[in-house]
Design brief:
Structural class: alpha/beta
CATH class of the largest domain: Alpha Beta
Largest sheet: 9 strands, mixed
CATH architecture of the largest domain: 3-Layer(aba) Sandwich
Number of helices: 12
Distance between the termini: 18 Å
Length: 413
């Protein structure tokens, strides 16, 4: 019974793509920035080949001596010896790695995940650097029966500080966007109950189609008082439905399971998903993934860990991002030891979000692909080089599950 565990470390880019300057992202390198932090300690990902990927500086920088006793590899293996990875029953795991370029014209969450699943977006999703058209805002205000505030690109934490007090006083919704293709609605949970905010988002999703068809409508509930507002974990994304077949559709149509952890179900608007669970944070997402590793199923468990992007990348918090990577790395042995003989583990990203640049937006970067499994059909430590599209992940998943692909990309094996 073959299973795939595909984990997206949201925004974990590994260096600018050749066209990064077209997106205003020249010089961006999310991993490179995090390696400058004393908080970074990732020996387990290093053992899977992270610092051997094309364009990534060799291991050493950012690797500290292990201190938790759970690591499967010693930090900073300077002599270049291969590290033997094993499951809890002693089965040796092989590993491989690659660098992937984004073929789609974009750098947002939806575009990245769709491409991972084999759907390349030739046309970028619309963005609104000057805010949404006034005629749309008037129609939307009438549809929800509330006035609207802001309508500008804004930091999600700053917008509630600047408009939160007026929102409390008037009940008007805080509507804002970013450099990404998003329509975001922030509201205090005591003023607009979460189910009501979700309904407002559903109305917006229905209205934002065609030329206004943003990738995501996002509910951004918050709590607190002026000067002390905090966003809650009740965020909910409403994506466009993928306009063509993805690997998820193919896996589901083949009668296999498609389990979604975190915001995966939202990103694909439920299309191709057989079961899903939403999560509060990275720790919760990791625990839900490990729980599903104990289940018998055939197919894929597709995971998004969003804290890297949401809490640290967008807030330019270098140490926070590095610490989050360290936390994931410390949990990685728990995931590896649960891999069965026919399981495949893929760790990747969907774009970059360099916390060390002046920008607080996503960055156009290559993404890593770390691969582990007991029965990889390649030589241990294989470097697949630089691939032309994220869609090679989807192709590899379908190949592993013996499903004839109908998507873009080429399988790694």
């Amino acid at each position: 019974m073959k299973r795939v565990f595909l984990i997206v470390l949201d925004s974990f880019g590994i260096g600018e793509m050749p066209d990064a300057d077209r997106f205003g992202d020249a010089g961006s390198n999310t991993l490179g920035t995090c390696r400058k932090s004393e908080k970074l300690h990732v020996p387990n990902m290093a053992s899977l080949g992270l610092f051997k990927i094309d364009g990534v500086e060799p291991e050493g920088s950012g690797l500290k001596e292990p201190d938790d006793g759970r690591n499967i590899a010693q930090a900073a293996m300077s002599d270049g010896r291969d590290v033997v990875l094993t499951t809890s029953d002693g089965t040796a795991l092989k590993h491989a790695f690659a660098r992937l370029a984004e073929r789609s014209d974009g750098k947002d969450t939806t575009t990245g995940h769709w491409e991972i699943a084999g759907l390349v977006s030739e046309k970028p999703m619309p963005t609104f650097p000057d805010g949404f058209p006034e005629d749309f805002m008037e129609r939307y205000s009438a549809a929800v029966g509330r006035n609207l505030l802001c309508n500008k690109p804004y930091s999600g934490t700053q917008v509630i500080e600047d408009y939160g007090k007026e929102h409390l006083e008037t009940g008007a919704l805080i509507v804002y966007t970013s450099a990404d293709s998003v329509f975001q609605i922030a509201a205090h949970e005591e003023i607009v109950p979460v189910p009501e905010l979700y309904r407002y988002c559903e109305i917006a999703r229905e209205m934002l189609q065609g030329e206004l068809g943003v990738g995501r409508v996002i509910a951004r509930p918050f709590i607190g008082t002026p000067g002390n507002f905090t966003r809650t974990s009740n965020r909910h994304d409403y994506s466009l439905q993928p306009p063509a077949v993805t690997m998820l559709d193919q896996i589901k149509d083949a009668g296999k399971d498609v389990l979604a952890v975190g915001k995966i179900n939202d990103i694909f608007a439920g299309k191709g998903i057989t079961e899903f669970v939403r999560t509060k944070d990275n720790a919760d997402g990791i625990e839900r993934t490990i729980e599903w590793m104990d289940r018998d199923f055939e197919g894929i468990c597709f995971v998004n860990l969003v804290d890297f992007d949401m809490l640290y990348g967008h807030r330019n918090d270098v140490d926070g991002y590095a610490a989050a990577l360290t936390y994931f790395d410390a949990q990685l042995p728990r995931i590896l030891e649960k891999l069965g003989q026919e399981d495949l583990l893929l760790i990747t990203a969907d774009h970059g979000c360099d916390p060390g640049t002046p920008s607080t937006d996503h960055s156009r970067e290559y993404i890593p692909l770390l691969i582990a499994g007991a029965n990889l059909p390649v030589e241990n430590g294989t470097n697949f080089g630089t691939r032309e599209t994220f869609a090679d992940i989807g192709q590899t998943v379908l190949s592993w599950l013996a499903i004839e692909p109908e998507i873009s990309g080429e399988p790694l094996f």
